[in-house]
Fold this protein.
Amino acid sequence: MTDNGTQTASWQSCVIEEIVQQTPSIKSFFLRLSRPFAHIAGQHVDVRLTAPDGYSAMRSYSIASSAASSPIIELAVERLPDGEVSAYFHDIAIVGDEIELRGPLGGHFLWPEPAVDAVLLIAAGSGLVPLMAMIRHRRTQDPAVPTALLLSARTAEDVLFSEELHSVEINDAAFVLALAITREDPIRASDFGRRIDSAMVEEVLARLHRKPTQIFVCGSNDFVNIATEGALLAGVDPSIIKTERYGG
Amino acid sequence: MVTRGFTGRGSSGDQSGRIPPGQHLVENFPVLTAGPTPNVELADWKFTVKVGPKPVKVWNWSEFNALPKTKVTKDIHCVTSWSKLDTIWEGVLIEDILADAGLDRPTDFVLAHSYDDYSTNVPLADLLSGKAMVALKFAGQPITRDHGGPARLLVPHLYFWKSAKWVKALQFTTRDEAGFWELRGYHIYGDPWREQRYTDD
């Protein structure tokens, strides 16, 4: 065990307990662990699928559920156009199936402990997943931490965990939600109807009313580059920015 | 354990012997970085070799580019499970850097440092005998910022987090000192053929 909470994580089997279609391209999988673990919000698991001929495929998926110790974790998997493992999840997996995973993994992209002053979260599409674990953790453990989420999605129906995010925003004065809807007009006046840019990052930083002490960005490499450039242009210290880029 | 209904894309044909366990082949070149992408101007770029805290030699961009260059074609393997075959790099072999610095084997371990304060540890033996270089070109072109330009370490026989992007220094250490990811749950050595992904693998 290191000071960052990582520990030996051996392979275990788990059972798919429930599957929920969250958006047209993202499904949640609720997995019952055979050996439950406590994770830190932001961590991931490695999932391994094995074919009858012994061929196996491994991918990393962030945990969406909050860090409370529970025998069930939630993964939210986006179906990728050419996906090998995501296609299995979307087209083949059914409730009751068993898969192998190991975790929790990752000692960098983690909700800060102890809690900090203010946090800015920026994500695109399924990049929300590790940040959702943070938002859920914050709600029960650190509700006073001022937090803003800038979330980019193609259309309103592509916004992952939309209902839950809107409900957090309504019930929590210290939480700011700003959507960047790229392929249709946004419904709310406080949302943006364009792709992320520096000005947008700067405006969301202003809505936080505090200088953030930690910024988490998750999405494609291009998205992460635009988001971090925006934060740097707004005068943020690069050392407080943690990024996770998907691909591979 | 066989996963019901999973057949996968199957093995990668003739190339299966080149793909370590748990890895899959990609044609693109994914970018994974723990923080913002640094912007290092060539005019400001410097590369330092240190023994412990003591700098032994510092090169600027043109001095470093005057060192003997070597071209290699290598397969690379990222711990996130992608592998890319036949990547072409050009740069300065570590033994050529050390020769120019007048160093032989001051210690057995090296910590590489980067412009974004990233670091990673590699035993010296894994950097010599043509195994590693400070790469200046990828596929015949200057390395882009996203992929670690102006210069990155290339240690292709280890998981690719060892090939530090935006490298600025090699520091000889007396012990094998863990770097950034090695302190955050990843394996101290990182051999893809032994699947040394996480600390206790």
